[in-house]
Every structure is written in C-alpha cells, then in structure tokens.
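so the lab meeting is tmrw and i was supposed to have these ready like two days ago... anyway. pasting both below. for each one the top line is the aa sequence and the line under it is the structure tokens. i havent really looked at them closely yet so no promises
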Amino acid sequence: MKKISFLLFFLFFGMLLSGCAEEESSKIQVAEVTRSIFYTPLYVALEKGFFEEEGLTIELQTTWGGDKTMTTLLSDGADVALVGSETSIYVYARGADDPVMNFAQLTQTDGTFLVAREEYPDFNWEDLKDSNFLGQRKGGMPQMVGEYVLKKHGIDPHQDLHLTQSIDFANIPNAFATGDYDFVQLFEPTASIFEQEGRGHIVASFGKESGKVPYTVFMTKQSFIQKNEEEIRNFTRALYKAQQWVQSHSAEEIARVIQPYFDDTELGIITTVVDRYKSQGSFAENPILDEAEWNNLKAIMEEAGELPDDVEHSKLVNTEIAEDIMNE
C-alpha cells in the first residue's frame, strides 16, 4: 500500500511539474514574409531548440508578401513579423498611432541574384542594356535594391532596359522560364536550381553590390514590446544564439539542420545556397540594426522614389534589447 501511495505521489508531482513547465512557456506567433533559405538563422533557432530554451513556443506562419505580412501583424494575426524594414516606414508614414518597431535584424544584404538566360563568362553590367529584364514588384526591397545597383553601374532601369515589373513575386520564376526575357532578378534556391537545370546562369549578386542594409528584420508593434518585453528579450536571445551557431558551423552542417523546412529542395542545393549567402555576409552576425544600415535603406528607398518620410533611426528601431542581450 505504501508503495502504491509513493508511486501516486511521484505521478502527481510529475504532472504538477509538467503543468508548471507549460505555464512558463510563452507562445509567440511569427509571420514570415516568405519561406526562404535566406532566413536560415530563424530555422536554426527553431530546430536547435533555442526558443524552447528561452521558454518560448513559436507558431510560424508564412504570409507570402510584404503587404500581407504587415496586414497580419497590424490586425493582430501575428505578434511578430519577419519582413523588410521598409514596411515599418510605410506604416509610420501613414500616421500609425502604434508604430511598428524593428527589434532584431536577421539578414543584412539583399538576397537576390542576377540570372541570365545565356552564359556570360565575362559578364559586364553594360550587357544589360537594351535587354528584356524581368524585375521584382515595385516598392519592395528587391526592386528598390535592384534599381539602386543598376544605377550604380550606369544603367537607367526605365530607359536602358525593357523592364517588366507586373509579375507577382511567386510567379516570377515561371514567367522567366516560359517567357522571352534575357535577365531576371531571383532569390535562392530558385537561382541555383535554374543554373543546375541549365535554364539560367547566375552572373552577379545584388547583395554584394548594394552593401549592408536591414533587408529582413523581426518587428512588432510598440505596444507589444511594452506589454511583453521579457518575451521579446527571450526571442532576441534565442535568435542571437542561432546567429552565433550559424557563424561557427559549416554550410553542410547548417543545411542538414534546416532541411526539414525545404522538403522539395535537394540537400546539395540547400548547402550551395547557404554557402553562397554565408560567404557574402548575408546572415546578420547579431540582432542589432545600426544607424548606418538604416540610412543606407533610406538612401535606396529615396533613389527609387519610394521614401515617404525621412524617419530617424531612433523612431522605428529598438537596439536596446539586442545590445543588452549581447552584453550578458
């Protein structure tokens, strides 16, 4: 009888501890703008259990596009959004009472590549002139960075090219594959897959050409940070662990970790893409979005005629949390 009572006590005690653990875990809903190997540190944080170590349960949804992602965040369909920093400026310029704050940077360069229909062993940017160029959606970071880089090389995208910007983001690869285009601006892994299949050739990296910019950042409403600062701190700490892990491990090791998020992509392609992004410094090494990067973003937006307001870094960027985490 004593043995049964003793066993029941431990079963009850175990259930009590389990219940406490569940209560201690906080749920954060995250909306990512697309599913991309470009966001490798996020998937590493999920797969390596770094969020769990910080007492967080992450519910990840893919919202497919900047506008949809920001609408999801503003309508409380998500607590945190992973999207380009330009969206926070657009929201602020519309007079939002509860501004969207950038609190942790994930990628620090553009993630697109220039893919040509034909091989160009000695590619020169002048080769683009008078070509049929399939670009990205107007007003988004890929398009703005693309035009910024072209202008830097003396190419006026609206005068020197036969430019198409009317294709939806998800349909751009198929449009290039089936259409009469000479060049296209593509994300990975599509660019590498096209190259592997002989349907295109990577000739340049917009990320290398544009310099550091807060391309993809975790952001949330200012009110959410005020009410849930500890959860945001824990989120940022988990991300920083993942960023450090990515910096200290090989592309092959990283690819194996994130493979579950890309079931339709061969491990070899994932490895190639991770190596390409890592070697050009696309993955931010820490969560801090500094003022120089913010100013570079505004310069790119202004050059594209898309900067609605010259918003100061301090108004839409919270670096205090990331700085505290790094100083622990």
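ok protien two:
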Amino acid sequence: MTTQLNNDQYPIGTPGQKWGDAEKAQWLAMQTIKRSYQQEVVSKIDALKANFDVEQYGELDYAANTYPLYVIKTRNFDASKATILVTGGVHGYETSGVQGAIRFIETKAQQYSDNFNIVVAPCVSPWGYETINRWNVDAIDPNRSFYANSPAQESALLMQCINGLGIEIFAHFDLHETTDTDNSEFRPALAARDANVQKNWNIPDGFYGVGDTLRPEADFQSAIIKSVQQVTHIAPSDDDGKLIGVTLEQFGVINYPCKELSLCAGLSNATYCTTTEVYPDSPKVDGENCIVAQVAAITGGLDYILSL
C-alpha cells in the first residue's frame, strides 16, 4: 500500500490556510492528460448504438478540451416498469467504475430490460478520467456536489439529465474505487485545500458497499455482497470494526448519509441505492477482476429486486 503523506506535506498552499484562486490555478497547472476518454470510453459508447439509445446530455468545455457527456438507455422506455440508474466515473480516476458501467451495458443490461428501464451514465467526469483525478478543473469534488445550484458542472448536468427523464429512479448503483492514491495524493490534497486535518487513512483491501443511512435496505446490500463474493474478495473491517473510519453495518457494508453529504448516490429518492467500492491496488486482483466485480454488484442487486 502506498505510503501516505502527512497533512502538511502537500506541495501547494500554506499549512493552516485554505486555498484561494492562485493555489487552485497552481494545482490545475500540474495536471496532465494520461489517457484518452475518446478512445477508452466514447468509442465503446458509440459501439452500443445498434442496441441501445445513446443520448448526449451535456458537454464540458475545459480550455483546449471539450468533453461530451452521454447516457445509454434501454429502448422502449415504459413508465410502468421500474427505472434503474447506473453511474460511473463520478470520480474520474476510478477506472472500474467507468469500465464496469460500460461492461454491464455490453453484457447484461438487455437481459434485465424486460423488467426494468435502465439508464447508464458511464463517465460523469471525463476530464477526471483523462487526468486520473478525483476533482474537476476547479478543484471541486463532484461526489460532494449533488445539490441545487451545484458549482460542479459534472454534478449539475447529471442531475438535470436525470430530472429530465420525468421518471422516478427505483434503484441506483454508483460505481467507485478506493485506491492507494487516496493516501498518496487525494487526502493530502484535500487537507491542503481546506486547511484541515485528515484523520482517516484507512484503505480497505477488497470490495465493500456503502448504503444510505436513511434507506439502508440491508438485505439488498447483502445480496450485492454475496454476488460480488463469487468473483472477488470482500474487504474485512479493521481492528475497530470499521471501514474507512465508519462502523460496519454488516459484513462488507457501511452506511453514509448520502443526501446530507451531497453524494451521487443521494441524487434521487430511489428505494434501493448503493455505492460500490473496489480496491484495484490489491495484490489479489487485476483491472479485469475489478470490472467484473462492478458488474456482479449490479446484477446481484437487480436479482434481489426481482426476487421480491
């Protein structure tokens, strides 16, 4: 596991002082393109047009780069069926969230389309995907920005898209990763940006799920864990019975107040919602295993709903 930086070791800013525009500009100047959204994501979305409805719901215009934003939908939307939302890449650097959402559409979505309307937004933060970043260009975390008049374009455009469907979301799967860079980069950057102290440096080794404190749906979360267990390992709790500083609700599951924290998982009033977390830096997995685990999380949850 990557060694963490101390709270005062980040190379931008002055300890004890929040970042201003100058520090944010300095941070942005350090970011570079490391992979292609067009080649790794958009090309796969284009290939889905033969069997699904692909719609552009917005566009991010970031200096020299423009990023179209897409949702993929099963055809013949039927208001009498429950609508399922899958989101990936809210944190753009979390690769299997993006690729897992696409893989689900490619391999599994059609078999569930008789029972559900399915909407997939596979890469909410494409600039973050290309630069391998948690934040957007304004040093804002989109996954803390799902609220009215959001300053994060990524969050605001997705909320506008989902609200524009005119259909209640019944279940929402938000696909994420927890990586070693959380300690080597993102938590220290957060401490520097906000002039606070990061006390949680825990990175669980394995998959875990995050339910909503207000609607935990323990059996739904358990079904997801059982499904994922067939393809990869589940993260054990730490010595205090916690994951990332939060007390375990059940094996492999913690709960967060999603709306209170303005998380993507709280953007609707879905009866069932979960945030998945895989650990791609584990010696027990590889990139493909992480993608398959994300798909297993979705299918496990959908199979549970169908069993009711």
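from a quick look at the 2nd one: Strands lie at 53-62, 65-73, 82-88, 116-121, 169-177, 208-212, 242-243, 246-247, 253-256, 272-278. The chain has a mean pLDDT of 95. will dig more after coffe
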